[in-house]
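Sample intake sheet
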Amino acid sequence: HIYTYKIAMVIFVVGIGFFSLCFLMTSLGGQFSAKRPGDSPFTMRAEVLGGQESRGVLRKISDMLEVIMKRMDALSKLGNTSDTHRLDELSSALDRIQPIGLVERIQAIAQNMSDMAVRVEQILQRSMAGNKAREGAFGQCEIPKDPRYPDCPSKMDWMRARWTSDPCYAYYGVDGSDCSFLVYLSEVEWFCPPLPWRNQTAIPTLKPPPKKQAVFQSDVGTLLEQVGTGKESLSFMKRRIRRLAAQWASAARRLDDKLRNHWREQKRILVHVGFLTEESGDVFSPKVLKGGPLGEMVQWADILTALHVLGHNLKISVSLKELHGFLGVPPGRGSCPLTGPLPFDLIYTDYHGLQQMKQHMGLSLRKHKCHIRVIDTFGTEPAYNHEEYATLHGYRTNWGYWNLHGQQYMTMFPHTPDNSFMGFVAEELNETERLNIQRNKVNNMALVYGKEASMWKGKEKFLAILHRYMEIHGTVYYETQRPPEVPTFVKNHGLLPQHELQQLLRKAKLFIGFGFPYEGPAPLEAIANGCIFLQPKFNPPHSSLNHEFFRGKPTSRKVSSQHPYAEQYIGRPHVITIDFNNSEEFDATIREIMRIDVKPFLPYEYTCEGMLERVHAYIQNQDFCSPEAPFPPVNSSRVWPGSPPSPFILLPNSRILTWAFNASSFSFWPPLSALRLLASLEGQSCVKACQSAGLICEPSFVFILFFLRLEFQCEGVESETNHLFPAFSAEHAECGLQQDPLLFSCAGSSPRYQRLCPCRDYRKGQVALCRDCL
């Protein structure tokens, strides 16, 4: 009704001006003298026949329009009042104008317009009366005073002032009245209580779709169609999907046999690759053919393929338009929630996509964020993830601070147990290929890991040493007529397609890194093709405290080498990590490499089967949406042994506690049979403490730490929101308990504390899963 009111007023005012202008042009136009040569077509001469009378007419018309405009302005400010006398004043003002002679016709027009205004006012009065009747029937839509909805009054004030700031409010039926505000705030958002006069049964409660069984798929044709075209990055991903399709199909058959046709629920999954959207800048696509980073695209191609092969219902988005369509985002600027329930069980995205969803999903992101999985190469530690804590304690960065469960972040390598390990795959070799590689290796051939000429600068010293023993090859990108600035003794092949790079790796004995890029897929591919990977050791380790690359990333992790996973999980003889600044050590290492032979090696977790196994386990078992059941269960402590009663027992000859009862009686994942509890050394993180015992830190077990104190002699106990707790301070004999489970951190450490650490066992070659996790 407000829109109708304003439109009517605008039409009325414009009509006055138009009729007045037309009348002046037709009635007075003939009384002007002829134009002088050079006058503009729109210039009037000052000499008018009957000048005194005509000037009086113009003055009266001007006065009349001014009065009308003032009265119309007053009329436009009328709310739900019934001040119809103001319109009568407007009509009277017109009647009081008594023009003579030429203005009689103006009188008639003004009278007609006054009559029209009266009719418009009558229509508006009837409309406002209807509104008042409705509001009266509903208690005048007063703001409910309900302590369960404390934000309702402030939200009503906000809506009154700002409801026109986003078209999405009108999309949901908001029209500027208090009733429409309350309906919106109680039915679309959730800041006000349900209104008793609303027909609540009219709001449909959609049942979730029936569960379907997931069936392994070996044909990637439909996936390739979904990936789309138009970007070189998408073309790269599609080439990779096609090249590895047979390996994925074979891995799916093996995993299907391993699971023994176990029933798997098919999930509705959206994959939104935010960094490839035009809105995020998409800096990757233009660099695909120029030596730019490909690790992210390798991982995303493998994630898409794994989800497809596992048989899930997959949708792929690489633009905001596609994201809007899949999610049902209402038109506007993103202030309003989604139009219905979330149409997906899981959403895989990255930090760019997460930011885009925040801008366009409104409050729905907070409601549905438990369904989101963030592909995060370098990891996000809890201290950076917890928004309030990060802000207060100096951990706030441009990323982090989303208050997600730590395991909703999924990394490229298993370096941050607080997160989940997603990974990628490297190409596997059959037995014939493995034998051919071993026969055809060139003992004195080295391939450098560095596609950009800038990576070679400052490396002349150890390249000269390497050149004494080996023929050095490179794959440095360069444009025609501009060869790259690399030493003349280097045989540069330029940027190679993946299959040609594979052939080069199968011949080379050594694959050598210069220290950058960090933690890429190439070293694993080289090792899988029978190369020895030689990399520099960092002393001191690189981190956000001392290295520009890591500054601003939501992690305090200290990187000890170019590829810590290769150093820690693979190691010699496949991976050798040394100080490149020590010329004698470097020289001796090259001579050692030429004497030893290695076979192609690929960790199981980086095979297609390993990734399918891991992703399957996550999808079927990780649940961050259901409220956690209380622990210990009611009355279970009555049967616990010991004094005081405890569900744990010490492992023989150790200080590690394990679960004492049948773990299958508790529905936890990972199962409690995998649980091991121990105390770290002072200054040691739970990551290091668990690793030293051959275990993995497992934050899913943090709920157990809220009632367990091991055997610390605590003279005092404090409960605090602190990413270092639970912990024991030997100096003060105090035990610190964690108040917020979101802040428990495997990575946190301090010289002041011994950490209390939940660890677990793991499957050989698959650190992401415990022995009983499948």
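Comment: The longest strand covers residues 532-542. Confidence is low (pLDDT under 50) at residues 1-55, 74-103, 122-139.
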